[in-house]
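Subject: for your reference before the review

Hello V.,

The reviewers asked for a structural picture of the protein, and I figured it would be easier to keep everything in one thread rather than splitting it across files. Below is the amino acid sequence we used in the manuscript, unchanged from the supplementary table.
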Amino acid sequence: MRVVSLLPSSTEILFAIGAGDQLVGVTHECDFPTAARGLPNLTSSLLPTDALTPAQIDRHVRANVHAASSLYALNEHLLAALKPDLIITQELCAVCAVSYEIVAQAAKRLRGDPGIVSLEPSSLDDVYANIAWIGELVGAQAGAQKLLAALRAREAALRLRNAGRERPRTLVLEWTDPPMSGGHWMPGLVDLAGGQPILANAGADSRTLSWDAIANADPDVVIVVPCGFDLPHSLEAAGAIDHPIWVALRAVKSGRAYAMDGNAYVNRPGPRLLDSAEIFENAIAGTVAPSSAIQLV
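And here is what came back from the structure prediction:
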């Protein structure tokens, strides 16, 4: 089967279940595992190339979403040349990937009538279901079941380690200006990691938070995971938060505020969500060592 993956998460899933050799095209953001970087890129970002602050990015994104414009371009000529049998995309987030409408319209013009699969995970269990589904679609059921068994074993170990422990009140910020809560699977990861998620939006989109709400919640731990930002950019975004409430927060004053590589981990609903939960666990327990994934703000 010739598969095009228009999501970094589905690209990771395909490689993890042993079906990476079926991939013929990916997105410009599909950077893991290393083998994915050598595949043809079908998308590009339409954001301005100049360095933008989180506030500027937010304004640009909101304007494009309001105007029903995509933030990504799809190379339809390359898509046709690759002759896919299956295209994997999503409708969950208008900001995270090329829009489903653009993909569907492009697919109608292709010969061979390729199948289109839209992934809509809102929880870790949904991600498990997607792994099993993709395994069935590409004939890699055994690889999918092996991966699922390993992921569920790690989940069970996390739950066992954190059973009965005190649960620090933990705020995950998926954006910094304006501050936005962690939604969908993120609160579940906090719970799995031994924390009590606060100001969260489980199973639904992130939502904008007021600084007064954050002050009233006064979390024990804050983890900053800006969507699409690697660790250096996450550190930069957290360091640029300029609000008196931020510096007065219990987590910030006590040295329990962290910036994390959200792009590689938390923002991608794929196999590395268990890595994310384990990294969260160290942050919540206060045992983080300097790493390429998470650092103190």
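For the response letter, the relevant points are probably these. The CA atoms of residues 173 and 181 lie 5 Å apart. The chain has two domains: 3-120, 165-296.

Happy to draft the paragraph if you're swamped.

O.
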